[in-house]
Design brief:
The structure is a homodimer of 524-residue chains. By secondary structure, the first copy, chain A, is of the alpha/beta class. Chain A contains 17 helices and 16 strands. Helix content of chain A is 40%, strand content 20%. An 8-stranded parallel β-barrel of chain A has the order 1-2-3-4-5-6-7-8, surrounded by 8 helices. A 3-stranded antiparallel beta sheet of chain A has the order 11-12-13, covered by helices on one side. In chain A, a hairpin with a 2-residue loop joins strand 12 and strand 13 (427-435). In chain A, helix 6 packs across helix 7. Chains A, B: It catalyses: pyruvate + acetyl-CoA + H2O = (3R)-citramalate + CoA + H(+).
Chain lengths: 524, 524
């Protein structure tokens, strides 16, 4: 039997402190359900006393049944020189009606005197009193020892005495927090070990990433005996973020044989990460370990060659274990193999020596030189190959369009309208649409015109729209537009490049529509 | 005396394998000079045999004098069953005319047999022969033992024998590579220690980040005795990237007292990171340890409160040590203190109890609700405060504008033109401009009109232009445009939000111009 490590997710609480993060009530519900279905042990979701949104969240989530996870409300020890039972903030935590409560308290003497402004003794009372009160309300209490490592390094006796106060008051687990995120793996290992030797209770670890070592620090704490890891699912959090659970879980479970989440759910890790990023309105870092789009992407020609000869030769795990894919990235340094594997998807009869392959390689170089980058736009590259090989019958011709946009000071809206003519199998369709801005106007006009011919365009929509200025210099620089689209079943990405943002957007939009049409045709 | 740790930067070589990275010759020169002035010991810059660009790079860089860094060319051991002196790839390395050469060779028996397809013995010959040849040409040779940790775990005797072959042939340093990036800090520590005990030579560490632990792994190797750390300056590299030197250097030097770069250069770390990101056409991850925009940004109200009471209470180091700044991020969870410190910059007489402060807080909430996010657009927030406090005299009124854009199939360019009227101190200026796309056209028209009145607008330009779709759904969704601008002395960021991309762009552009004008006025 492998040792169980509890996974304690704080995406909705500590993650919400991350810059640029702002969860709506609906976002919080969706993320909770996703984490529950992935099988994390605890979901720390906020403080019902601190704001109305968190209060509504707990009301709503308590009407739903979670399969795997325990909900946790988070709050601090009572105010100094008072009584937990009469402390409004402490009592507010009970409103959440969660089985477990995280109580954070000070473990660093400097913080007690200089930030709280109270005595070392009163801080111990605050911890004991608050936890006892929660235990009397039949709550499972998890004690977060804030700044524990800094505190321990400064005054080990006092830091340990705060843990003692928590244990004596009935805390179920002691969580050692590296709140400032500057600790090193060797320190974390040693100090965790001492705490476990001193107390017989469950110990958790809560790391921040200010030294870029939150994942390693969490793992070294587990190696020293900790059996709970706190973090956020994508590593989001204040400053440099929290320990990234989507990295820690596979590191512990696949590499070191610990039991973190149900084994059959590991393969859902990548999907869960992408879903949570989507809900959080974040672009998931492509290079994120295990779940990133490029976590198993090979660019160097030699590596690509190695992977083809011997799988695993340039990969630390099989990407399927976490539901991710191996990718061969096209570029000037990637060598032929990557591109050939994509060409073969379109026409399996072609080899690396076929003249068509050479032509596509040359075309790719030319397009890259113009600013195209197919690494993030594989649907567009697929179309480039098909068109070059003559394996593409155009679904429509965009004959012409015109956009007019007008804005007057003092008037609320800026109006944009587009007129368009498309030709489908010799039949012309001319139409016009108004939109919130020129891209929207032309998008609406194109769809309106094409839906006359292709009904299946109704169920596809854009997921993301990104613009990158290539030369970085000014508004006349070349821009690259990347569009992510979905029809609910599949996601695909397309690219457009131009000095004109409208032209680039239309290019990516047309590619996306063409890809959708060809995909549906081939699946029939 | 603190122990010297050599910093070996491979941004231009291993970093170039990163997805989305494509350095021009000029980029490579600029990055080399920046790394040299920061004081890294080695700059690994490419393979002159592999492509023309690298060959030109070495020709050009050799005409310049580096102050601190040694240049390194990188290549592999000779082909199997041949002779190094007659191997074209090996000889090509000499063209670079660098004082040092990195030679990588196989240390994992599985790779020798299954990827190289040769015998274990011939691999040892390849290492010895190639290194001896380079030493005979008076090169300092650094041996990169590819997959060393995986190799050691699989067959320690063989892995060590590859190092022995390198040492006996005259390699100056042995670099242990975790090529697949899946190793753990405790393994790295143990194995590095064994290598150092076995050989008396300099040992380096080269980690990849597939387990999210490249920084910690590099540091644990140094703790075990390694005295060279290889990485890329921003952690860029294939898959999940390489060990991030901008994190490792301050971790080692500030926290553990090692000597990595000249002490007085540490304060240039943040500027160097941002400069290299700019040249690499990368958005520097805001949460990157030490150098990220948010590395010392405080959002949670409690943390902000703590920092104000006791500096260092929520920071692992003083941000000035690495040339970064403390920031208080505005948001619904940041509490009043952050916003007050920004308001006080505009009007030092205001306090947290001033009615104006309350009004600005309410305004901020309303704007955030509309989709504004001032975290990345402090110049816009500054304008919001000034305008609300009446501390702003408008420099111009944008009376109205109209944009026309037309595209015909088969014609090369899509033309956009904008006409505009601005009013400055009662004087009207009406003008028009053509542009590559609507944003460029309106940008040019606004500047053309305003430069009549304000000459100082000539020296400012846009650095970056980002678009984020807020609701993610379709082209009618709200978009947030962020514009980064500079006048060569200062950088600032502004924001515009609208369902219309043109309107949002114009909003951000107008803010940027206003900020520039007010800044120049106040500096006079």
């Amino acid at each position: 039997m492998s040792r169980k490590i509890e996974i304690f997710d704080s995406t909705l609480r500590d993650g919400a402190q991350g810059s640029g993060i702002s969860f709506s009530l609906d976002d919080k519900i969706k993320i909770t359900l996703e984490l529950d279905s992935l099988g994390v042990d605890y979901i720390e979701a906020g403080n019902p006393g601190s704001n109305q949104k968190d209060r509504e969240y707990f009301e709503k989530i308590n009407t739903m049944k979670l399969e795997n996870s325990k909900l946790v409300a988070f709050g601090s020890t009572r105010r100094k020189n008072s009584n937990a039972a009469e402390d409004q903030n402490v009592n507010n935590l009970l409103i959440a009606n969660t089985p477990a409560i995280s109580i954070f308290g000070k473990s660093w003497d400097y913080h007690v005197t200089d930030v709280l402004g109270t005595t070392l003794e009163e801080n111990l009372n605050m911890i004991a009193d608050t936890i006892s009160y929660m235990v009397s309300k039949e709550k499972e209490v998890i004690f977060d020892a804030e700044h524990f490592f800094d505190g321990y390094k400064n005054n080990p006796e006092y830091a340990l005495s705060t843990l003692r106060a928590a244990v004596d008051a009935g805390a179920r687990a002691l969580v050692l927090c590296d709140t400032n995120g500057g600790a090193f793996p060797d320190e974390i290992y040693e100090i965790t070990k001492k705490v476990i030797e001193e107390f017989g209770v469950d110990v958790g670890i809560h790391c921040h990433n200010d030294g870029g070592m939150a994942v390693a620090n969490s793992i070294m704490s587990v190696e020293a005996g900790a059996n709970q890891v706190q973090g956020t699912f994508l590593g989001i959090g204040e400053r440099c973020g929290n320990a990234n659970l989507s990295t820690i879980v596979p590191n512990l479970q696949i590499k070191r044989g610990y039991d973190c989440i149900p084994e059959e759910n590991l393969q859902n890790l990548t999907t869960a990460a992408r879903y949570i990023a989507e809900i959080s309105n974040l672009t998931l870092d492509h290079s994120m370990p295990y779940v990133g789009n490029n976590a198993f992407a090979h660019k160097g020609g030699m590596h690509v060659d190695g992977i083809i000869k011997a799988k695993g030769s340039f990969e630390h795990i099989d990407p399927e274990l976490v539901g991710n894919d191996r990718k061969f990235i096209m570029s000037e340094v990637s060598g032929k193999n990557t591109i050939i594997s994509r060409i073969k998807k379109v026409d399996p009869s072609l080899t690396k020596d076929s003249p068509e392959t050479k032509e596509i390689l040359d075309l790719l170089k030319r397009l890259e030189h113009e600013g195209y980058q197919f690494e993030g736009a594989e649907a567009s590259f697929d179309l480039v190959i098909r068109k070059h090989l003559g394996r593409y019958t155009p679904f429509f011709i965009l004959d012409h369009y015109k956009i007019i946009e007008e804005e007057k000071q003092g008037e609320d809206d800026c109006t944009a309208s587009a007129l368009i003519k498309v030709i489908v199998k010799g039949r012309e369709e001319m139409t016009a649409a108004e939109g919130n801005g020129p891209v929207n106007a032309i998008d609406k006009a194109i769809r309106k015109a094409l839906e006359v011919f292709y009904e299946n365009l109704k169920d596809f929509h854009l997921v993301d729209f990104k613009v990158r200025v290539l030369d970085g210099a000014n508004t006349a620089a070349k821009v690259r537009v990347l569009i992510d689209s979905t029809d609910g079943q599949e996601f695909w990405s397309t690219i457009g490049v131009s000095t004109n943002i409208i032209e680039a957007s239309v290019g990516a939009l047309v590619d996306s529509i063409e890809y959708k049409l060809i995909k549906d045709l081939e699946q029939k």
